[in-house]
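Hey, resending since the last one bounced:
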Amino acid sequence: MRQGGIAALALLLAACAGSASRAPAAATPAAPALAVDMQKFGGQWYLIAHVPYAEERDQLDSSIELRPRVDGGFDELYRYFDNSKMQSLVVPRSRYIAVAGSNNTRWVSHLRSLDSQMNLDVLYVDPDYRYAVVGESRHDLGWIYARDPVVDPAIYQNLVAQLSQHGYQVAQLHRLSHSQVLVGNTRLAVP
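The structure tokens again:
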């Protein structure tokens, strides 16, 4: 049994050490990310797919920007296209604080609009911080993020597998669309 645990840890380390051009290994054991570099994790992330809650259900062009704070946490700005107003909106949504001793893999998110908090786990982040999978600790909500609005289908399937391996209901996962402006034309970019 102990050798099996060591082998599983070795597989996880090998998957995390792989090159950015490779998709996350579908056979990676269900263990949270070992550590998260907060400086690399900050910045713009496109919301590629999620098991949503009411506030973010199926909004087009959804993304977050994680802005570092002096205390080591992040403030989140949530961007999305509001169909009823026919415009893009930016909402200061959450404040993130890393849980002490978690190597920045566990966070407490204080949701401003709901005046509540969520416990989040960074389940996966690739070595170049191009893709991330985050889950709510009760396994009710999950998010797939990428630095670009379009994700290769094979990489997407492997990111979905990360959520599944951690016990999330991927049948409830919603893929989101993003528009991109190309030489004055708008096109729909489906992840």
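The helical segments are 2-17, 38-41, 153-165.

Sorry for the duplicate.
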